[in-house]
Structures are given as C-alpha cells and as structure tokens.
Type 1 fimbrial protein
Amino acid sequence: MKKKLCACIYLLAPVLNCWAADAVTVNVTGNILAAPCELNGGQDSLSVNLGDISASKLQEPASFSDWVSFSITLDKCPAGTTKATINFSGTADSAHPDDMYINTGTATSVAIQLQGAGGEGFGNGQSYTYTVHEGTNPSYALRTRVYSDKGGATSGTVIAAVTATMTYQ
C-alpha cells in the first residue's frame, strides 16, 4: 500500500510543476468621485401648480396671471463644493425665448414665463451660478406665471416641461 501511494505521488509531481507558471501583474484602477448634492430632498421632479386662472384675465395683449413662487434646494453637498450652476432647458417660446416656454397644454395664446425671484430670465439655455458656503443648503428662488403676448387666450390646460440640470464645483 505504501508503494502505491508513493508511485501516485511521483506520477503527480510533473503535473504539480505546471502550476508554477509565470507571474501575472494585476493592475486595479478607478476614480473616487464626490457625491453630488441632493436636489429637493431627493425628489426627481418638481410640480408647480399655477391654479385656476380666468381666461378673461388673459384677453388683452401682454396680460398675465399672478406669479407663483417656488424653489429648488440643494442638500447634502459634499465638503469642498464651492459653486453650483443650474441650467434650464426646454422648448422656448418664439416671441420671448429669454424667459418663456411654449405651452403644450390645450389653452391657446399663452406661454409659461420662468424667472428668478429677482426678475432674471430663465429661458432655454439660461443658467445661474450660486456660491455654496459649507454647511448651508443653497436654494434657487424662482417664480412662474402664464403670459399672453397677444391676448385672446382660450380656456384649457397649461403645461410646460423645463429641465433644470445641476453641475457642481
């Protein structure tokens, strides 16, 4: 029995030498990125309700509804974040592209106006850069309303989709 075991070991010896091959270097790479700020408490979308607006209020040229204020807030910005830029995009109103978007709802002769709280126009392609102070939650104060350039608005729904894209430094 001992002879058979020794013979098996001698027969496996050449196979065991095959396991000792050339060394291989494994390179591991990657990037560590700062986490982005969280928008509006982690919400992916923000709905702003303009309420019920009387069509009679939008019959004259350059007529408009009341402003509705809202904000986009940044939370949990990583340490070292010094600036945040918000860029607005959507389908611009051809008559007032600097701060208005087309209405895709059923009401006619109206557009949706979007501005900063201080009256800065935030039409398609417009942006605003905010200085971030560590330990604070920056907030973009905005306002929106319905605007009728030519008057004669008809009743129906008012809908605009505006994308706000954030970049951080």
